Amino acid sequence: MNSTSKNENRIVPYKMLLDAMETTYELVEKILPETGIPSLRIGLEEMITVVRRDIEKAREGVPIVGYHFAFQADYLKCFDCVPICIEGVSYFLGTLLMNGVEKYYDIIGNWGHPFHTCSAQKGAMGMSLENLYHFDAMITPTAPCDSTCASYPFFKFEKNIPLIIADMPFLHDEKSYKYYGEQLKLSLHSLGEVIGQEPDFDKMRKALEVENEVSKLRMELFDLIKAVPSPIENIFNPISAAATIIISGTPENISFYRRILDIAKSRYKNKEHHGGEEKIRSIWPYMLTFFDISLCEWLDRKMGMSVLFDIFNYNLSDPVDTKTDIDSLFYGMARKAMGWPMIKQSTEFYYPFLDDC
Ligand code: SF4
User: Fold this and answer.
1) Exposed end of the chain (fewer CB within 10 Å): N or C?
2) Residue 163 forms beta bridges with which residues?
């Protein structure tokens, strides 16, 4: 096997994801009318561009870094690496493929991993047992919950992957933001030592500025979502969750939100609803059915039920101060990280939920 194939074979599941996205995109192009599920079409276009670029980088041999979805992908832009979300890749494969990644859940279950831990890591764990992943390092915060953190020692002790852990405090207050900001800085330096790179915080700052811009666009979009009928289709929710995981910190994320916003503005002006008529408005305090997102379309078209947001995409944060100094930068990053979906709710469930309403 030549070195290029060997390099890209370090992330076989990510290549599977690219195949699944390209096939879905082809179906969308060939079967749906121009106006059908635009968020799916737009989201796939933007994500495919980024995943192709990542796979090209993997071919060149840059380090592969696995990260927990609760560790923001844009923070890893301080390195020349391919960041792979442990939870996201198998979840989105589950969304796009008929049989999902059940095989790998069975493999890790048969290996003896406790069934009651978070399901989100199990796909990647089974894939690692099959040697489909070869990570150079992994990084995770001690969040959102024990059930998720408990699976990460598997990667360290069974697969011998260097594991960097950023300690996140439970309470959300000034002292905690300062502490977690320090933890973020330390953990990025530790990750740099493992992969042999010095973190380039100027490069990271640019990715954070991209995400500040995305936040503004998201705020504008959520203002429009208050309108009746909702100007987004339900599938926007899982697609935007995928975008946060896969294209954060890249110009493609800005392009995704600009294009969605244009459609939402036009629907808002014309009082158009994707499904025809909005009869019910719902918010989902936890997750959507990622294993079958066609439910979103069914709710829109058959029930006239709009899903305004779910736990993953109602993800609004103050812009990170990228101009003042390094301490303010990491403080803002910590605040944003501690308000991240599931982390925000893991301290207490109902108050953040009531605030969101
Ligand atoms: S709260 Fe999130 S991370 Fe924790 S078990 Fe549930 S899905 Fe997994």
Assistant:
1) N
2) 138
Cβ contact 306:230 at 8 Å = yes
pLDDT at 356 (0 to 100): 72
Residue of the CA atom closest to atom 8 of ligand 1: 118
How far apart (Å, rounded) are the C-alpha atoms in residues 226 and 209? 26
**Burial (Cβ within 10 Å: 0-12, 13-18, ≥19) of residue 219:** exposed
Spatial separation of the C-alpha atoms in residues 349 and 342, rounded to whole Å: 9
Residues 3-199, CATH architecture: 3-Layer(aba) Sandwich (3.40)
| Among the listed residues 267, 265, 274, the one whose alpha carbon sits nearest the alpha carbon of residue 217 | 265
Which ligand 1 atom is at minimum distance from the Cα of 69? 3
Q: State the Cα–Cα distance between residues 284 and 236, nearest whole angstrom.
A: 13
pLDDT in tens, 246-281: 999 999 999 999 999 999 999 999 999 999 999 999
Closest approach atom of ligand 1 to CA 345:
1
Quote the CA–CA distance of 128 and 131 in Å, as a whole number: 5
Give the start-to-end residue ranges of the domains of the chain. 3-199
The Å distance, Cα 24 to ligand 1 centre, comes to 27
Best of 69, 125, 152, 342 for a ligand 1 pocket test (most atoms within 8 Å of beta carbon): 342
- Tell the residue nearest (CA) to atom 6 of ligand 1: 118
pLDDT digits (tens, 9 = 90+) for 183-204: 999 999 999 999 999 999 999 9
Cα 192–chain centre separation = 22
How do beta strands 163-166 and 82-85 pair?
Answer: unpaired
User: What is the ipTM for the molecules in this complex?
Assistant: 0.98
